[in-house]
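FYI - complex with zinc ion, inputs then prediction.
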Amino acid sequence: MTGTGDKDNVVKLRSPRPCPVCARKSVPNFHPFCSKHCADVDLNRWLKGAYAIPAVEPPDDWDEGAGRDDGEDR
Ligand SMILES: [Zn+2]
């Protein structure tokens, strides 16, 4: 008889990772966050960081056009 023994051998999450935002216990639905709120917070952080990395580059015609035109004119 090894029916009950096998069924009891369910793999559980031994080391639940804490929510990276508030360090609370994370839930499977919003893993690795503890709630949708924290998931949104982290997402916003990520988006802000992603938007902050690429600097606003002026179009080529804006700077080079004016500079070259002035220099090559002479
Ligand atoms: Zn959280």
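The chain has three helices and no strands. The pocket of zinc ion is lined by residues 19, 21-22, 24, 33-35, 38 (CB under 6 Å).
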